[in-house]
Amino acid sequence: MHRDHLNPPLRKDGLQLDEHRDSQLKFWRIQRVAWVFFALIIVGALLGLTGSGGLLQKQSVSLGEVTLKLPRVSRWEAADEISITFGGNVETPSITISQPFFERFGVERIQPEPASTTLTPFGQTFTFDAAGNAERAVQIDIRSLHFGFTRFEIAVGSERRSTSLIILP
Length: 169
Known about the structure:
The protein has helices at residues 21-47, 99-104; strands at residues 58-63, 66-71, 73-75, 79-86, 94-98, 105-111, 116-119, 123-127, 136-144, 148-156, 159-168. By secondary structure, it is α+β, with helices and mostly antiparallel strands. The chain folds into 2 domains: 8-47, no CATH class; 58-168, Immunoglobulin-like (Sandwich), CATH 2.60.40. The chain is rod-shaped. The mean pLDDT is 86.
């Protein structure tokens, strides 16, 4: 089998000038698309879309007078936190988190510790002792157990919000 028609002829100086320009142009276009894609990944990482800092790292969920700040993107086996702020008019601060959350995350620490934890068909309810009518804050330190996409619900009283989170490997 003779394959001389596939390879352009060599000049004495070693150059192959008769190469097909169409294949080179296709390669350059693919290269440019790849560079744009990589640039978008870098910009997303700087904005916090890969976890660990940035403007878009945290999402905020409001349920009446309760505000939660939790990560949009977490890293597998990395520590993260959820901040909960209870407004001054909340008499008995409590929050319920649905079971799919606990299938993806382990709770390492809750500060201050809840006065009680109740298992419900919906998930786990954390109730905190509180005195006075000042704004109160709770921090939950979490660590992801598995990577992937997770959707779960958070409830305060009768209000429920669905939220989602991505855990990157």
